[in-house]
Amino acid sequence: MKKRFGLLAALCLFFGVLGLAGAGVGEDLLHIEPGTTVYPCGDFRYIVRDDGTAAIVRYYGKTEELVIPGEMDGLSVTGADRNAFLELDELKKVTLPDSLKDFVICPFVRCRNLTEIVVSPDHPYLEVIDGVLFSRAEKKLLCYPLGFTAEKYIIPPGTKEIEEYAFYFDDNLKEIIIPDSMTEIGEAAFNCCYRLERVTIPDGVTKIGPEAFRGCDCLEEVRIPESVTEIADNAFLHCPEKLTIFVRLGSYAETFCKEQGLNYIVK
Length: 267
Known about the structure:
Blueprint: H1 7-18, H2 27-30, E1 39-41, E2 44-48, E3 54-59, E4 65-67, E5 71-72, E6 75-80, E7 93-95, E8 102-103, E9 116-118, E10 126-129, E11 132-135, E12 140-143, E13 152-154, E14 161-162, E15 175-177, E16 184-185, E17 198-200, E18 207-208, E19 221-223, E20 230-231, E21 244-247, H3 252-260, E22 264-266
Parallel strand pairs: 3-6, 4-7, 6-8, 7-9, 12-14, 13-15, 14-16, 15-17, 16-18, 17-19, 18-20, 19-21, 21-22
Antiparallel strand pairs: 1-2, 2-3, 5-6, 10-11, 11-12
């Protein structure tokens, strides 16, 4: 794919890319396809997508308030990779451009002090509801800020999916209320939510992804309806022995609990 840059920009990119290995920015750390070219732009690193737009793969700056640019080297920024903003302890507020439309997974994993995500009211792809980031069209919950201190969260009606790692490493929530509109709980959605005690999964949910509740040390009660027909083997890995799963007689969830040796009660 051809890209047009000014002479100065092209030279900066050329020598910048050559210097990535020396800066400790290996492709193995960025979770990208081997051989993919990574370009620098200030504290950001990005790749060029097949459609000629940019996807951020890493940010190396330190700031409390981050404004993600809508363009990098003349390319529209449309995505962010899984570790793009991993463990930014300083980050408290992030503003997303209107061009940004998708994530591989929640890109703000383990940003413990993040309390504010800002998108414009007319953002074509994303929206923030009560401080939580959602996709407009797919009705996915993308990112629950870890800086929130509430012990209970009610997911808005109409939400269809919880994206991968959406609540990963939250250590404040004790209870999650999931709406009837939900159909899928993504991989590691509640992984390492240390204080989470109870979750009721409503009718309509069909899938619970890998490591969805892995390492939830305080989890005591999960209610799984008949509608669930797929549960990853490690969905409840490293959960406490006191965990009791309430299931329906003859349901997939009952069979799953038997096979996995989990405590369950038929209701």
